[in-house]
């Protein structure tokens, strides 16, 4: 069975839009795309009067080397969000098919499914925010076409072991595509599972330059998957997804100097994460600090609303995650630069002191 047998038949049969850049490349005088012959006013980047490549060759090459995959196994787009949306639209028939998620988890999986009118099957994480593989597999029906697993998890920070990923992808063979979201994997002790792609055609991996590579504003993300899945998604992807300035920013960030700089910052985050977890746990009013393999800590408070307000009044914005299952008393705090983290600790310690004096 081909992994494409899981996809929508009408998408497999779709005649995709053929853009000017797809039909012809190279040449000295470009008169095939109705572009302006003049460069735009101001310093907005060379070549912005021309449409970009649908999949910029230089960026695809760099990312394929970074993630140790073949070019044909990689699709680059506007953040992980675009890849999630493309997967749902390609594999889920409206009103008939479903995705499976494990809350608490990243909200865009369910949003993309509901926009497509696909059902959302929920198998909650265990109380310690670990994945229950048996429960996930028991919940997979014929309607489930995509199983999303977020590791490290957002918003809890927990990880799914490589053994569990391998067990899932083997059990789902011929039944569903397993999509492993590794947005935070650069901060984790365990590495990527992208090396399993050649063994399992029903595995896909989401990666992003938004976190460890400091390019949240450039909106660059990747899907790593079987070449047939990549080719299928390109059929429904807009022809020019990546603005040239974003591509240029990504190439700079992924240069030799850029990679060394990013890895130095990752080391700082990992060190600060350990320091912050220990310091937060000592503060009065903090019930627990969840173990995290991401670039944030999720913290349980006696009064999360008061803690949020105290930080906000001091100009510090953290994420209120109390709406998520199992996190009704928690805030998610991104690990910032050491000086930023010191401010968080000072505000929360001051809050505790004020309560004690009262």
Can you offer a commentary on this structure?
With 358 residues, this protein is α/β, with parallel strands linked by helices. The protein folds into 2 domains: 252 residues, Aspartate Aminotransferase, domain 2 (3-Layer(aba) Sandwich), CATH 3.40.640.10; 100 residues, Aspartate Aminotransferase, domain 1 (Alpha-Beta Complex). It is built from 12 helices and 11 strands. The strands form 2 sheets. The protein has a 7-stranded mixed β-sheet, with helices on both faces. Strands 8-9-11-10 form a 4-stranded antiparallel β-sheet. Helix 7 links the parallel strand 4 and strand 5. Helix 4 crosses helix 5. The radius of gyration is 22 Å and the shape is globular. The N and C termini lie far apart (68 Å). InterPro entries: Aminotrans_II_pyridoxalP_BS, Aminotransferase_I/II_large, HisP_aminotrans, PyrdxlP-dep_Trfase, PyrdxlP-dep_Trfase_major, PyrdxlP-dep_Trfase_small. Homodimer. Keywords: Amino-acid biosynthesis, Aminotransferase, Histidine biosynthesis, Pyridoxal phosphate, Transferase. Pathway: Amino-acid biosynthesis; L-histidine biosynthesis; L-histidine from 5-phospho-alpha-D-ribose 1-diphosphate: step 7/9.
Main sheet, how many strands, which sense, barrel? 7 strands, mixed
Strand content: 5-15%
Mean of all residue-level pLDDT scores? 94
Q: Tell me the structural class.
A: alpha/beta
Task: Provide a short characterization of the protein structure.
Its EC number is 2.6.1.9. With 358 residues, the chain is α/β, with parallel strands linked by helices. Helices cover 37% and strands 14% of the residues.
């Amino acid at each position: 069975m081909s992994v494409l047998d899981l996809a929508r038949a009408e998408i497999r049969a779709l005649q995709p839009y053929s853009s000017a850049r797809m039909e012809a490349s190279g040449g000295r005088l470009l008169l095939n795309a109705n572009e302006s012959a003049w460069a735009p006013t101001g310093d907005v980047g060379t070549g912005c009067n021309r449409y970009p490549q649908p999949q910029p060759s230089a960026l695809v090459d760099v990312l394929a080397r970074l993630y140790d995959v073949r070019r044909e196994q990689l699709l680059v787009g506007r953040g992980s969000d675009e890849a999630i949306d493309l997967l749902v639209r390609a594999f889920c028939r409206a009103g008939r098919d479903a995705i499976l998620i494990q809350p608490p988890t990243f909200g865009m999986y369910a949003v993309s499914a509901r926009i497509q009118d696909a059902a959302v099957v929920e198998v909650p994480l265990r109380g310690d925010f670990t994945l229950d593989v048996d429960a996930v597999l028991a919940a997979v029906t014929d309607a489930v076409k995509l199983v999303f697993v977020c590791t490290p998890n957002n918003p809890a920070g927990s990880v799914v072991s490589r053994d569990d990923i391998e067990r899932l992808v083997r059990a789902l063979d011929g039944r569903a595509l397993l999509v492993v979201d590794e947005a935070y994997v650069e901060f984790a002790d365990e590495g990527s599972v992208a090396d399993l792609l050649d063994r399992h055609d029903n595995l896909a991996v989401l990666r992003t330059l938004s976190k460890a590579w400091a390019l949240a504003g450039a909106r660059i993300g990747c899907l790593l998957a079987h070449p047939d899945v990549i080719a299928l998604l390109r059929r429904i992807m807009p022809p020019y997804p990546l603005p040239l300035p974003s591509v240029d920013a990504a190439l700079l960030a992924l240069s030799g100097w850029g990679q060394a700089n990013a890895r130095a910052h990752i080391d700082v985050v990992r060190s600060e994460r350990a320091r912050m977890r220990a310091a937060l746990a000592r503060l009065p009013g903090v019930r627990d600090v969840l173990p995290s393999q991401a670039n944030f800590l999720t913290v349980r408070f006696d009064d999360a609303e008061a803690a949020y307000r105290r930080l906000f009044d001091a100009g510090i914005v953290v994420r209120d995650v109390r709406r998520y299952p199992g996190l009704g008393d928690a805030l998610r705090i991104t690990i910032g630069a050491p000086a930023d983290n010191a401010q968080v600790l000072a505000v929360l310690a001051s809050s505790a002191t004020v309560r004690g004096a009262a």
